[in-house]
Specification:
By secondary structure, the protein is of the alpha+beta class. Helices cover about 40% and strands about 15% of the residues.
């Protein structure tokens, strides 16, 4: 399996300010299922690195990789100087290539010496987690207790309550408020009726805010009352660091809305027990229609359904404050092996690929 090896950020692999080594045997309120992974060392001969610490070389290599990577992508700052000649630029590029090669060699040598061949990965997200779908054991963690608005990942909770509270063949009338909500939306018309199953598809596949509000109003009469159910359900399934403010995940001015990647991963694990949710998350495209006779095309926002041969399902989210978010699951077959969550990512699809490959690698896939 292809692995990604790049520079880790300073706080990569830390939980609540504690390094992974400090978390050995520890149990926290936010992560009751935490089990520190015991690294299995092979019978290979031990290697004594200079300064007696592989971590030193790994950290040094990571720093060099980060600096040079950014310099290589921005060489124009040199070319603007009248002093620097073309020959100096050529030498600069060659030197940076040599440093990158040495950095990778040192990082790999450190990994070999310590037996931790899977410990160095880098994602752009502020917060990320990968857990074993069966045991909830954490396979990767970065700022997993950081409070960040969940954006449209909140719609998974909306979907869970829909499946619990109403029949999927029930006709639901779209209110004026639901039809006029800001995007993203399916374009439902005020007064039109739709099957709850179709509104659920619009909610999960194309992240339709109008469908989410129509469902919430049908269940509780108002979105504000529905939010109370969302927070009650969150507490029941162990989401201790989450507060929902609406059924859509849109920014809220009145109530602070936040969650953590660990809570979102817990919610996703719970959602995997709902076949209707898994089926919709696996569906790429769908047409729905209402009483007005219009056909509405739904396209899943999860681009990984088209990009990856492995099964990567989930729910996307984006707001200016939250940036790109994702809560999902992945596996090599019909059964999901790992669950993961990402908040505030700059390169979402890249981060997903790295985390999924890392998680499946540790699972032996």
């Amino acid at each position: 399996m292809k692995r990604y090896l790049t520079e880790p950020p300073i706080n990569n692999g830390h939980i609540g300010g504690l390094g992974l080594s400090q978390m050995q045997g520890a149990t926290t309120k936010a992560c009751p299922m935490w089990h520190a992974e015991e690294e299995q060392r092979s019978s290979r001969p031990k290697i004594s690195l200079p300064f007696g610490a592989g971590r030193f070389w790994a950290a040094t290599a990571s720093f060099v990789l980060g600096v040079v990577h950014r310099l290589r992508r921005r060489p124009h700052f040199l070319s603007r100087s009248k002093i620097v000649t073309a020959n100096v630029l050529i030498i600069y590029r060659r030197l940076s290539s040599i440093i990158i090669t040495l950095g990778l060699l040192l990082a790999g040598l450190s990994s070999y010496a310590t037996g931790k061949t899977h410990s160095v990965i880098y994602v752009t997200a502020k917060s990320a987690v990968v857990v074993d779908a069966r045991t909830n054991k954490i396979l990767y963690a970065k700022n997993i207790n950081l409070h960040i608005p969940p954006a449209s990942c909140a719609k998974i909770m909306t979907a869970l309550l829909v499946l619990e509270k109403i029949e999927l063949d029930k006709l639901i009338t779209v209110s004026k408020r639901a039809a006029s909500i800001e995007p993203s939306k399916a374009g439902l018309r005020w007064g039109s009726q739709y099957r709850s199953a179709d509104l659920l598809a619009a909610c999960l596949m194309s992240s339709a805010n109008d469908a989410s509000i129509a469902l919430a109003e049908e269940i509780c009469g108002s979105e504000s009352e529905f939010v109370k159910l969302m927070n009650e359900k969150a507490k029941k399934i162990g989401m201790e660091n989450t507060r929902f403010a609406n059924a859509t995940g849109l920014p809220s001015k009145k109530i602070e809305q936040y969650s953590t990647v660990y809570d979102l991963a817990r919610m996703m694990r719970y959602a995997l027990n709902k076949p209707q949710i898994v089926e919709l998350m696996n569906k790429k495209e769908k047409f729905i229609s209402g009483s007005d006779g219009r056909k509405i095309y739904l396209r899943n926002h999860n681009k990984m359904l088209w990009k990856k041969p492995k099964s990567i399902i989930g729910k996307t989210g984006y707001t200016i404050k939250s940036r790109h978010c994702f809560t999902g699951a992945a596996g090599s077959g019909s059964r999901q092996k790992v669950v993961f969550a990402i908040l505030s990512s700059r390169r979402l699809w890249q981060d997903i690929s790295i985390l999924v490959n890392h998680g499946l690698y540790l699972k032996g896939e």
